[in-house]
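Annex B. Sample input.
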Amino acid sequence: MPAGVNQHAFAELGRWIHIHWRTRPYDPGEAASAEARGREEALAASREWTSHELEFVIGRLVRREFLGGVESICASTGARCEWEIRRSAIAQRIAVTISGPRDVVDPTTQQVRSWAAKFTAVSGG
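Annex B, continued. Sample output.
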């Protein structure tokens, strides 16, 4: 085929080809509704209630200081905190239950664990 025919055929074919790049025209209404859906999903996830129960072996001499620290950590983050002393023949254990919204409980649990790392188990106390 002559060169002119190829160019003409290509030009005609180019009029009918549509390239799709997986984008669509910007629609403000769709963008606003997608943003609202994202906010609703984030809010629903933050409302999900959860609790973690942690158990520590703490000596009697430092029990008040330990529990005071745990309660102040929970009060500062907004988590709910309950504790119970469980005694056995070998040791005294403290069970701490932290509850609240998931986005509050997870970081609070990490803070309480780091606080508990400062205390060592005291035997015979």
